[in-house]
Amino acid sequence: MNTTFTQQDILHYLESYDQETYHFHIDFEHPYFYTAGTRLTLFADENRWAIVFEKSGYSTGNSCGEIELAYFGNCLVNLKSGIAGDETTSNMKSVILINATDLEHIDDGDFTELVSNSKDKIKARDILLTLEHDTSKYQAKNISLRDYDNPKGLVDFPSLIRYLDEEYPAIFRATDEELRTCLPSDLPKLMHISQWHQKAYYKNKYLTSPTTYAVEEIGTKPSDYETFRMIADVLVSRDTTKWKPTLKPNNDWRNWPKAGSM
User: How far are the Cα atoms of 82, 109, 133 from residue 70, in angstroms, in the given order?
Assistant: First the structure.
């Protein structure tokens, strides 16, 4: 299949930093976000391509359970903030799964971020889910509960959302409509990728004078390892059988222990 973009075009884009006012790379260890589930979704036709990275988890900044969606591609739309008079753009959108009010309702005190044993339900996407208080169920999933400021040994909010994500993955993944928030509605979806090998990578832009700046590159470039070279090949060919990774998947949150830690 012929396309108007190449593998190198995609890799170059993934290693750039100034496409939007606020451009975010794939980030498994953001200090204000306890990652739970992650997924990539690929879209393409002969002229357009897009990758949507999603991660669910507990946002300490917003005090809620949410999905963060980061968009990459040559056809992105709807990137403005939506605030009147604000012309800034961003490749990130958020979907609230469990709002702050509902989490406050199950809190053991004055927002301790611990689940009260007297509560038995939590609402996610308007669906009531049963709260699990048996800590052995969390231990069986290698979910370590908060060990500080937790004298009762209660389930903490990040651990709760990680547990619920694994018990109810369909609720904690973006819908097709949510995935397409910043995409043309007619862009064909090629595939979901639920397991892959990821290396940390981002660029830090900082001022060197009042009028000039420099960019510090940190981590491993997407073009330097198999995962994104192969993803780019799938997008160019639109052949999903080309996704044949040999690197061990590591996108499970347990492999990224700094998530949520300042």
Answer: 17, 34, 33
